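Human: I hope this is not a bother. Would you mind checking the protein record under this note? Thank you for your patience.
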Amino acid sequence: MLNLAKRVILQVMGDKRTVAMILFAPLLILTLLSFLLGNISYVPTIAVDKTIPAPIVSALKEQDATIITIENDIDKTLYLKDKKADAVFSLNGQSPKIDILEANTKSGKAMNCIQDALSELNPTAKMQINRVYGDSDFSTFDSMGYIFLGIFAFFLVFVISGTALVRERSQGTLERLLMSQIKRYEVVLGYTLGYSVFAVAQAILVSVYSMFVLHLPFEGNAFWVVITMVLTSIAAVAFGATVSIFSTTEFQVLQLIPLIIVPQIFFSGLIPVDTIPYGLGKLCYLTPIYYGCSALKLIMVEGQGISAIWLFLVALLIYALVLCTINVVALKKYRSI
């Protein structure tokens, strides 16, 4: 028994990926969860129009927020869309009114500051909350549906393509291909195009099912939702191929999920990236899920079209092309052509 335990310990210690997954992956995920669920240090900006009495404005200034004064007749919707404030505080008759762009961490913190200020002066005041995007009747699934679509479009295709390509190599199929006259780039593009067919089928099926069966809100054109999901899936195929080239077994591909996939989920829109401390939110530009989910949000939540999402789609294409280039170069270790 002890000899068996010793053999297992030595075997695990000899696998650096396993050691990293056991020891460091939990630390990384817990740190990201603390950013998501902990108390953020973000200081919200609250715009207050001139109808707000001076005592309330004074109480607001005592909160941990930046207070700016705006004119009464300003277009609050446009003001919020321009990201000039996280919330606009005004009076609708005698009732306090808060306008926010959408329900998220930043607007939530702004509303908490307003509520704390009002509780000191008028604890029984009932506030009217108006959202530019979304509805107060939306469920969590309705509000976060675009995130789930983006994550599923990437994650499932990544797992399938990554493990399948490792299996191709372990069974000798890849080596036999490389012994023929086929070029390295043809191998990479062939695998990418092959799995992309299933990515298209998945994108269409998931979009139709979400819209007509689950009744997920689609403010924009469903066509661009499908296109975005397809490009996200193609990036996932290229990502899976890259990981598979540097893995020797299917288990090693799965081992890397906590390290390279789970962190990307935190850049999908679960929390505003500019509220992540230490500047870590800027890492979102290195993750394909960020571009996919950002485009899906613009389409499904804000009702935008190609003019608003084209940069994100181009980023996904560039991401896929860069990874395909890496894959072509990496195949040199199997054959020099």
Observations:
- The chain has a mean pLDDT of 81.
- The chain has two domains: 45-131, 140-333.
